[in-house]
From TrEMBL:
InterPro entries assigned: Leu-rich_rpt, Leu-rich_rpt_typical-subtyp, LRR_dom_sf, LRR_R13L4/SHOC2-like, Plant_RL_S/T_kinase
Topology within the bilayer: Single-pass type I membrane protein
Source species taxonomy: Eukaryota, Viridiplantae, Streptophyta, Embryophyta, Tracheophyta
Cell compartment(s), UniProt: Membrane
Record's keyword terms, sorted: ATP-binding, Glycoprotein, Kinase, Leucine-rich repeat, Membrane, Nucleotide-binding, Receptor, Repeat, Serine/threonine-protein kinase, Signal, Transferase
Main enzyme class: transferase
Protein name according to UniProt: non-specific serine/threonine protein kinase
Length: 245
């Protein structure tokens, strides 16, 4: 591909084009490019486009680890690398992408600890790390992501207790944590999430009693707690919630 005739290009959509192999290095010459969509192809990675604000490389058959050079894309607002075969750990350098509003790394082969430095991405409103193979627990630093409205970490092999700092995410509307090995009790701080609509804690190893204070989540419509190890009975005031599907 020859992009030399388009030096001022700011938006490029090559999704669903049956492309394969390496991303053409000539794309790196498009220094004004802001939006690049290469989703649903069979391509390998590139991180030289420093003007990008949106990068979608979902379903691109990417493999291998993410280069720490991703930290050069400091103008990124939206990044999706979902549904590839990316492995290794998430580079802590991703914490430098301070302008990110949406980050989707779901459906890959990530391992290791979730970097606490992701808690520095305080502009995030959407974060999806689901369907990976992490070790360790949810970083307490995620409590700094106070602009989040949607946090998804399903089937991530997470262990340990829920950090009470999650109660600081007062803009959160959806919290998806099903299918992990999260243990301990539900922290009372979760009742600070007054905007929460959906809470998915099913299929974990949570114990203790179900906090009656969950009934204070007046906007809650979806609550899944099944397949855990709770003690006692369902608090009667939970029945006051207008929960529906």
């Amino acid at each position: 591909m020859n992009f030399s005739s388009f030096p001022n290009l700011v938006r490029l959509n090559l999704s669903h084009q049956g492309l394969y192999g390496s991303i053409p290095p000539q794309i790196g010459d498009l220094t004004r490019l802001e939006h690049l969509n290469l989703s649903n192809n069979d391509l390998t990675e590139i991180w030289n486009l420093k003007s990008l604000v949106a990068l979608d490389m979902s379903d691109c058959s990417l493999n291998g680890p993410i280069s720490s050079n991703i930290s050069h894309l400091t103008n990124l607002v939206s990044l999706s690398l979902a549904n590839n075969q990316i492995n290794g750990s998430i580079p802590s350098e991703m914490g430098n992408l301070k302008n990110l509003v949406s980050l989707d790394l779901s459906g890959n082969l990530f391992v290791g600890l979730i970097p606490p430095r992701l808690g520095q991405l305080t502009s995030l409103t959407f974060l999806d790390l689901s369907f990976n193979s992490f070790s360790g627990s949810i970083p307490r630093e995620f409590g700094e992501l106070t602009n989040l409205t949607d946090l998804r970490m399903n089937l991530c092999e997470l262990v340990g207790p829920l950090p009470p700092t999650l109660g600081q995410l007062t803009n959160l509307r959806y919290l998806f944590l099903y299918g992990n090995q999260i243990n301990g009790s539900i922290p009372s701080e979760l009742t600070n999430l007054k905007n929460l609509i959906g809470l998915y804690l099913l299929q974990n190893s949570l114990g203790g009693t179900i906090p009656p204070s969950l009934s204070l989540l007046s906007n809650l419509r979806i609550l899944y707690l099944r397949t855990n190890s709770f003690e006692g009975s369902i608090p009667p005031n939970i029945g006051n919630l207008r929960i529906g599907s």
